[in-house]
Design goal:
single chain, about 200 residues, mainly beta, 9-stranded mixed β-sheet, 3 helices, 12 strands
Amino acid sequence: MSNGQSRYQAGSARTVVFAIADDYGTAEVNVVACVRRGAAWQPTLSTAGYIGSNGFAEPNAKREGDGKSPTGSYPLTEAFGEVNPGTELPYRTLRRGGACWGSTGGDHRYNTYYSGTCLPADEDLTELMNDGPYKQVVVIDYNRPPESPIVHGSGSAIFLHAGSGPTAGCVALARPELETLIKTLRPHDRIIMGPRQVLLR
């Protein structure tokens, strides 16, 4: 899987996380983390995971509210949650209310973190942390700089977080495995996600 067979480039990543579905339309994925060792890649984690309840969107076809996860290769640039488990990624500790992620089309905070009163369509990160799934989160930089400009309506708040079932578009896996993975991540690492026939040669 990781020895030059991916259609997507790893760039300067030391760790690449794959989220691979058997086909479009399924919400179940295999999550595999691989670490670069010289010219080779060594698998370090393999576990079951979940994506959007409607499976993967075709490349460049993800839309806000479609219940699908985007297909492609994206940086993992930052993390947030209740306490830093030991990651080298920039980490935001959520301590009280007013931590929001924009999902309102037309608003200048679309697909970005902001502090204040969350708009009705936006995500209240602290509330979701208290409920469970956002106790640990890695931000997947889909539809965000520096990879691409933000396009309103193309999807927001795509994260790697804890969970045991289909999501609204994020990638979810069990919290113990997620925390093990987060500890290995550093800036420039990536996630490559989509159906097997799209990702692999």
